[in-house]
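Internal ticket - ligand job 724, 3-hydroxybutanoyl-coenzyme A:
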Amino acid sequence: MNSKGRTTIEVGAAGVAVITIINPPVNSLSLDVLSSLKERLEEALRRDDVKALVMTGYDGKFSGGFDISSFADLQQGKVAQPKPGYISLDMLTDTVEVSRKPLVAAIDGHALGGGLEIAMCCHARISTPNALFGLPELHLGIIPGFGGTQRLPRLVGLAKSLEMMLTAKLVKGEEALDLGLVDAIVSPDQLLDTARKWALDIWEHKRPWNIASLHRTDKMESLSEAKEILKLARAQALRIAPNLYHPLAYIDVVEEGIVSSPRAGLIKEYETFEVLIRSSTCKALVHIFFSHRGTMKVPGVTDLGLVPRHVKKVAILGGGFMGSGIATSLLLSTYSVILKEVNDKLLQAAIERIKENLQSCVNKGKLSQEKFEKSLSQLKGTLDYESFKDVDMVIEAVTEDLSLKHQIFMDLEKYCPPHCILASNTSTIDLNLIGEKTKSQDRIIGAHFFSPAHVMPLLEIVRTQKTSPQVIVDLLDVGKKIKKTPVVVRNCTGFAVNRMFFPCTQASLLLVEHGTDLYCIDRAFTKFGMAMGPFRLCDLVGISVARATEAQFVLSMPDRTYKSMLIPLMQEDKRLGEMTRKGFYLYDERRKAKPDPEIKKYIEKAREISGVSIDPKLAKLLDKDIVEMISFPLVNEACRLLAEGIAVKAADLDIASVMGMGFPPYRGGIIYWADTLGSTYICSKLDEWARMYGNFFKPCDYLAEKAARGFPLSGTTDPAKSRL
Ligand SMILES: C[C@H](O)CC(=O)SCCNC(=O)CCNC(=O)[C@H](O)C(C)(C)COP(=O)(O)OP(=O)(O)OC[C@H]1O[C@@H](n2cnc3c(N)ncnc32)[C@H](O)[C@@H]1OP(=O)(O)O
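stdout (structure tokens):
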């Protein structure tokens, strides 16, 4: 079997051994790397010609931490440490940290998770200004397992370490120096020489031997302060993630080290790590980690060897809420942006919105004043197409009016250079229709952003049968550069995210008309872990948008829509959602939502029009039943997207559900979650509800077939069945 990574050792004339971790692309710590590292360390400690050691990572990257792809082997017991806690105690604490030869970490790139934990066992840390440090393990449903829970608080103080861990915050070189996490900052070309000299200086007592990180006390708060900080951290963890156990387990482990001893903390750490790595939360979050990266791999597109073309200048048509958000995203990533509006008043308003967006980044400390000025200087407003002659990409973000879009795309074909990518931010209109009056269909593509576009992480890239792979590769690259997660889907009404989410609103309306309490539905959803319930979301998006979207779906899938008058009735009465401070909820000036007893009136009227009577069973549903009755239709639609080839991979829908709909990542995304319940169970429930409440619930063929065989829904789709 090929080994997964290795380390090398090179002993220089001055007697400093440089050990390099080699496991591209991020130098993760596979078990092979760890075992090779142990051998190299032992060799260096044994050799008489070695006075001191430097540890570094290959190709300017220290280490991205423990090898996440080996979690599955650990979970299944296929590999194990020689004894419990071996790496943390025997290797790092009792060999490296106590060694009589000084060991200095030379850090460039990233020192994350296990990478940082190893660096913290060293006797000094030298880094470059751009190096990134952090313990992001909680994002994977685990806690650090190589001593990070004990050493980070002792190096940077308890309060700061809790902040870094609970928010998975990464710190950069200079901040790490201020915190005391590193001892010196040097440029990349001086890194190794400085580290070598530093190690030798310690050996020659020209620099002090620092006390081992595990036993430092100078940064730690007093016991009473520490207890108060831990109490607040527990409250924060419960508030941020009430369904999650592992952040609390992490705080318990830190506490053990403080109230008992650091060694007791290390023991509790590895015991807890062993439990958490086998948890369903960890498995789901690891699935999200790899699926997230997998969205950049599109079969038949990204495997053709195409190189993304350099996109420098982007034009945006329409500076409304979406257009200005998209422009902000591009400016933040140093693209030159031309913003076109139809008159000066709208143009000035759009520029003002962009300024506000950028200013809010400055206020949150995410953008320096200097970068704010630079970004803004990259923005040019215009009222005509004159300056479009050298743009590389256009993103149209005007209102959803097909004839207007027809005209725009014909104009774009006339004014833009032939290589220019012609993208539309439409959320519902068929891209084939948008481009039908042009001869440029190979460069027409959907770039569907989610509102607010400069904040939401998902970018749905929609390709038609004619979109060229080169254009898809180009947009994937732009998406990555503007720090979005792109998911490539095929063209259909609502594309993947809106189409998948639509049955959720529909099922909610059906339940409400049959007697389920509207606010109980939203509560059950948020308790399940969704960012917000379907009715709160409707208010946020706006009742008019919800109605317009509904109209599109009623047209394209009349056989499976539930026709409720609740939303039209509210629209008639100008209860338009959060923007009018009245929708399903009432809103105060701080946008805090409060249930409104008046909503009953609208429900009763809608019920009367539909001719539906209250079903006593539905009026008393448990939270679990509410979640299932609303989410299973969503799963059903996701299955249709897979069967039709709209989405190529189930994992893409998992990411789309997490990033576009607020589905809880620790449940792994919509299809992953469905598979934890089983296709047979979901299908039988949908069948039962279809018999009782109509075709809206009827399982699609894909789901029924998988259920009949007891297969998971995430199995690869048959490309032959793709409709394109
Ligand atoms: C015992 C310990 O306490 C437990 C641990 O250490 S758990 C691990 C903790 N570490 C992490 O969570 C870091 C995870 N990685 C990252 O955040 C980012 O990959 C990074 C900042 C290191 C680099 O980001 P970036 O340059 O954008 O590259 P990115 O696309 O994310 O990753 C490159 C490749 O490396 C893989 N990779 C990244 N980190 C990995 C890791 N720790 N293990 C295995 N593979 C990893 C990715 O899956 C990707 O693979 P692909 O090319 O086949 O898709």
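Auto-summary: The CA atoms of residues 10 and 235 lie 49 Å apart. DSSP finds 30 helices and 19 strands in the chain.
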